[in-house]
Amino acid sequence: MQIGVGRVLPMPSRLHSASIVALLPAVLAVGLLAGCTPDAGTPNPSASVPSDSATGGSTEPTTDPGSTPTDTVAAGTPITIGCDELLTTDDVYAFNPNVGAAPDYTPTVDSVVADVAADNGLACGWTNQSSGELIEVAVAQPDPDQLVTLKQNAAATMNAVPTYGTPPAVDGFFSQSQDTGTVQVFTEAGYWLVARSTAFFEPGDAVGIITPAMSHLP
Q1: Which end of the chain is more exposed for a tag (fewer CB within 10 A), N or C?
Q2: What is the rounded distance in angstroms from the CA atom of residue 57 to the CA atom of residue 60?
Q3: Which domains does the chain have, with CATH numbers?
């Protein structure tokens, strides 16, 4: 009896086996990536929310610092008398016979006289016909709160003097700068009276102007 010899199948080589093993991680990775890909029919939440730039910016209200309203000072009560009533011809002559009305007078720029005139006040000028010295006098009736501020500023920058009256009926201040004397007087009735001239070397030099002017205030 002849015994058949069975066919021996060839064994896979080590190189072929190694190739199969090496391909397994790649196949698994592809499968995992396929499982993580979102369904095309499912909306993406992150894509459905518009950004600020897409909507033209944030919808929250903004505040413009430059639009903040600032406090304004109430205007003073208009002065209803004229220069020839504030100081009459006799008043001026009594002060100095050489002094007369200054033609085409305008308040000195950036002076306290100009400030008084700007507050619905009255500003007047007289000139010494001999020396050419200008004498400026102005009066206003500021808002009460503003009057307090003005008086505080005068007290902080000038010398308080009793020359023109006694507080609280009259608060007087005097200063001299660059050869120009300045008087500020605050009355209990709410008036702000000032005088300015190179003729004022000391508080007493302006008494002949301030005293009659106060007596003529409405």
Answers
A1: N
A2: 9
A3: 83-215 (3.40.1000)
Instruction: For residues 43 and 36, give the distance between their C-alpha atoms in angstroms, rounded to a whole number.
Output: 15
3-state secondary structure at position 161: strand
The CA–CA distances, whole Å, from 47 to 34, 58, 216 equal 21, 18, 82
List pLDDT tens digits, range 31-53. Answer: 433 444 444 444 444 444 444 44
Q: What is the pLDDT of residues 179-216, one digit of tens each?
A: 999 999 999 999 999 999 999 999 999 999 999 999 99
* pLDDT tens per residue across span 1-33: 444 444 444 444 443 444 444 444 444 444 433
Q: Comparing C-alpha atoms, which of 211, 215, 198 is closest to residue 94?
A: 211
The answer to whether the Cα torsion of 50, 56, 58, 61 is positive or negative is: negative
Count of residues making up the chain: 218
pTM for the whole structure: 0.68
CA nearest 138: which of 154, 121, 153, 151?
A: 121
Q: Which two tokens stand for residue 55?
A: 């909507």
| Bridge partner residues of 137 (DSSP) | 124, 195
Under a CB-based contact definition with an 8 Å cutoff, are residues 125 and 133 in contact? no
